[in-house]
């Protein structure tokens, strides 16, 4: 899409990946621009542009010194800076140089990201908790969840299946390990119900830095001790699989500040698809339950929590239906498309950009 706009600024976007395939490249600024009919160009440089929105895969070394005349918006939906300094965060500066985004290695990736945020005219994140932390770098921080217009809403449907429970999870390979604490509860339930876990993910995925050492997901899940069906990730596939399922799970690694700080986007997706959702206890999941008016017994910390939740929601179609209805109402209302679009409108208003015809 051309970034030339006769009635407004020329706009560029630095994506997570040149293919624009990652969810962040489909559901954040590009999705907003598409909805608002705003032209932009996928770029790697600021030459000839009035404004650039950059993803977290930008060359921090270069873009932290972007010229002052350029309006720079940084989209940082993940809680990188919540991790604190550790071996992993120190190694990230070298890893991202090897993988490609950085033009040279940096000793302190955390600090370099902070310098980019200090240069930014606006910063966009995805949770109020992140916004509070990012306030130390910028006085202009906004919260915007993912835009899910690519996912067609599905009204909740009550399935009548005697003795069978279909459970769905979706995500990228690095987050697959979050399911492991749920496995004992799923195995217990499978002793009395025909439980099938559907994984909507890439069948082959890189194990290292999202680029290297591909692994076959089947080899990872083969020892889980429950029936597992793997479905190649795709928007249509996710919708089709979800329509066959009774319940969705959204576990996260609660020991990792990065994953614990993730927003409620996956809950929103499954609610949009008409499913009841069980998830790990986290600030964003608790907030989502409050918004939807859903009981917090869908949130789990321990293996026992998962066992109790799966026992209740796995066996009782009526209680599943009530939670699915409440979640779907929230996904189409306060968690729907218009609030997300309005959040992005506010980002650009804050830097003095007025789009034509809005």
Structure description:
This protein has 358 residues and is of the alpha/beta class. Helices cover 37% and strands 18% of the residues. The chain has 15 helices and 14 strands. The strands form three sheets. The protein has a six-stranded parallel β-sheet, with helices on both faces. Strands 11-8-7-12-13-14 form a six-stranded parallel β-sheet, sandwiched between helices. A two-stranded antiparallel sheet has the order 9-10. Strand 9 and strand 10 form a beta hairpin. Helix 7 (183-189) runs parallel beside helix 13 (303-315) and helix 11 crosses helix 14. The model has no long low-confidence stretch (mean pLDDT 90).
Provide the fold topology.
Layout: E1 11-14, H1 23-27, H2 29-35, E2 41-42, E3 51-54, H3 60-63, E4 71-75, H4 87-99, H5 109-119, E5 122-125, H6 128-134, E6 141-143, E7 164-170, H7 183-189, E8 194-201, E9 204-208, E10 212-216, H8 217-221, E11 227-232, H9 235-244, E12 247-250, H10 257-260, H11 265-272, E13 276-280, H12 283-292, E14 299-300, H13 303-315, H14 317-332, H15 337-350
Parallel strand pairs: 1-2, 1-3, 3-4, 4-5, 5-6, 7-8, 7-12, 8-11, 12-13, 13-14
Antiparallel strand pairs: 9-10
């Amino acid at each position: 899409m051309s970034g030339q706009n006769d009635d407004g600024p020329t706009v560029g976007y630095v994506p997570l990946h040149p293919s624009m395939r990652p969810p962040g490249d489909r559901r954040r600024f590009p999705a907003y621009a598409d909805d608002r009919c705003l032209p932009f160009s996928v770029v790697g440089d600021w030459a000839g542009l009035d404004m650039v929105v950059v993803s977290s895969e930008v060359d921090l070394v270069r873009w932290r010194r972007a010229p002052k005349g350029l309006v720079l918006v940084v989209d940082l939906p993940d809680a990188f800076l919540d991790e604190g300094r550790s071996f992993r965060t120190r190694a990230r500066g070298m890893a991202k140089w090897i993988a490609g985004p950085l033009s040279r290695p940096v000793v302190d990736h955390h600090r370099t990201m902070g310098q980019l945020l200090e240069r930014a005219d606006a910063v966009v994140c995805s949770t109020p908790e992140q916004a509070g932390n990012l306030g130390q770098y910028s006085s202009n921080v906004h919260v915007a969840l993912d835009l899910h217009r690519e996912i067609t809403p599905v009204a909740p449907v009550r399935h009548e299946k005697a003795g069978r429970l279909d459970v769905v999870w979706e995500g990228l390979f690095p987050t697959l390990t979050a399911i492991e604490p749920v496995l004992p509860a799923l195995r217990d339930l499978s002793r009395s119900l025909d439980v099938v876990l559907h994984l909507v993910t890439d069948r082959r995925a890189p194990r290292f830095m999202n680029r290297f050492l591909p692994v076959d997901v089947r080899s990872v899940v083969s020892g889980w001790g429950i029936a597992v069906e793997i479905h190649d990730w795709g928007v249509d596939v996710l919708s089709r699989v979800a329509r066959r399922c009774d319940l969705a799970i959204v576990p996260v690694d609660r020991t990792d500040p990065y994953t614990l700080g993730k927003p409620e986007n996956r809950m929103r997706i499954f609610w949009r698809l008409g499913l009841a959702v069980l998830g790990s206890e986290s600030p964003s999941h608790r907030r989502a339950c409050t918004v939807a008016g859903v009981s917090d017994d869908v949130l789990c910390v321990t293996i026992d929590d998962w066992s109790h939740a799966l026992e209740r929601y796995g066996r009782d179609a009526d209680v599943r239906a009530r939670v699915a209805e409440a979640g779907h109402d929230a996904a189409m209302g306060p968690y729907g498309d218009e609030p997300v679009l309005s959040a992005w409108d506010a980002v650009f208003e804050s830097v003095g950009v007025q789009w034509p015809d809005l």
